[in-house]
Amino acid sequence: MSIETLPVELFHCILDNLDTETIVFSVRHVCRLFRSFVKTYDRYIVNLISISKRNYYLLCRLINPHHVISLKLANEERTTNQIDLFISLVRLRQFTRLHSITLLNIKEYQLNFILKRINLNLLTSFSFNINRYDDRRIKTTNKYLRSIVSQLNFRKMEFNLNTERLSKFSWPYNCSIQYLVVNENITMDNLSIIFQCSPHLHKIILKQKLEENIVTNVSLKSTPQIYFPQLTSLTMEKLPITIAILESFLSLTPSLVYLKLIGEHFMFDGKRWEQFIEINLLNLDKFEFYLDYWSLEKKTSADLELIIASFRTPFWIEHKKWFVTCALDIRQFIEQAHNLSALIIQTGMYRYNLNLAIEKIHGIIPYHVKYLRIPINNTDQIPTILNRCNHLTTIAFDIRYSNFSEEIIKWFDDNTMNSTCWKDYKMVSVWLGARKIQSTEINHDQKRMKIS
């Protein structure tokens, strides 16, 4: 079979495995046949969160909204004011086939504006993160959210509603949601209501904390005891202060098959974990944890061996086949992260003594990273970073003094085209445009030469 006789349906199945930028900016330009195939493709998954500004405008112009089934937008460091720009460039009512929407760091009035104009009936997944609430819009927001969650085919939701807002939301009974991501602190009361109304909810990711006093009251003192038997997968990225509080919550999830925890060094006790799992989590098959251990004293490999010795009993190694490892240097992790696309480097050193470590910090940046947040102390370091990381779409600079932010913005005004800069507290974010080609003039044997 030659490419000319390839059925368009099969070609579209191939496009399903490519990102939108590759389809529009690469495949589309191969030949006239490919262009015709791309023109009729109607399953675009459009992610505008990490994209160059030039490509952003082109995608908004070239893609037919009726052919988009998934859309991701953000007003974050990487893409400043993107949502307002998107609203001005497209006709929202033409997005009639959306199955999935992601709206990050959105203002509440923008959220309502968008949800009013798109078809909500086909949604199976909805993610939003409100960065500016407007209490005048509570009823309107809740009306749209309830309409979405009540859909029979709705499966996944991610949100950051604060405790007060969540308590005012009437969660529909017997909803079909299966996968929930919570980006805000949540009380045990609110979490219990969600479980009671969601009999099919089997996977939860908690990005922030459970209210610690609420967890203790419910899990240790309430009668009768509350359980979440439908939950089989749990991720907690901000662990409670003590292991006792964590254990009291995990004891409510007896059906867990997958557990992932991110937290502090107090969890380094393999024997205690072993005993708890054997009593409370009999179905647990996969257990991942990432724990930070900070110390003012320099640690050696021998110290690490002592820390992880309790995780090398027959229970861990032979029965569960869970293997624990540690590393001393962040460089080791970065060098092994070949697919790393975003990197945030933070330091406790301020601008006046950052010179002590700035070269080492810049020296560990992967060349292929697309989003970078990094400290700098003078604008001469900007071209060094940009030259090293030529795949960057967005960069954010941690700074010490507010007046330095103006120097950074001026540098990008002078040296780039169509870059968008945004100032926040001790930080400047830049959505990168094109670099200007620097030209200089020199005299050679009384002849003027222009080099560019």
Shape: globular
Q: What is the CA-atom radius of gyration, in angstroms? A: 26 Å
Alpha carbon gap, first and last residue:
49 Å
Classify the fold: give the CATH topology of the largest domain: Leucine-rich repeat, LRR (right-handed beta-alpha superhelix)
Give the tally of structural domains: 3
Q: Would you report the number of β strands?
A: 19
The largest sheet has its strands arranged as 1-2-3-4-5-6-7-8-9-10
CATH 2nd-level architecture of the largest domain: Alpha-Beta Horseshoe
The percent range for helix content is: 25-40%
CATH class of the largest domain: Alpha Beta
Q: Name the poorly predicted regions.
A: 213-224, 440-446, 448-452
Number of helices: 18
Largest sheet: 10 strands, parallel
Average pLDDT, all residues: 83
The CATH homologous superfamily of the largest domain is termed Ribonuclease Inhibitor
Q: Report the sheet-strand fraction.
A: 15-25%
- Computed structural class: alpha/beta
Question: What's the gist of this structure?
Answer:
This protein is of the alpha/beta class.
